[in-house]
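Most newcomers find our protein records easier to grasp once they have seen one. A learned vocabulary of local backbone shapes supplies the integers on the structure line. Here is such a record, shown just as it appears in the course material:
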Amino acid sequence: MTIRILDNCPACGACLMVCPVKALAISGSKLTVNESCIECGLCIQQCPVQQLVLPKDTPSPSPAGKGKGKRSEDIQAKEVKNNAKVTGV
């Protein structure tokens, strides 16, 4: 699984620099994530518009289809650090 990009992502690029495995890219005017994503959550923490979520945190779409994403409450700095140790990143 990979980080999920919600519909209202402006592809601002704020998340690109924090990804330890370079899984994020901007293609045209859209942010993309590839299979090398390790779900460390650094991009989620960096996103200024809260449009990146872990798959389990994906909000249900609103009736109008314009639901706002929410920042993952599960990601803690300690968990990110532990993931980095396990993966060697």
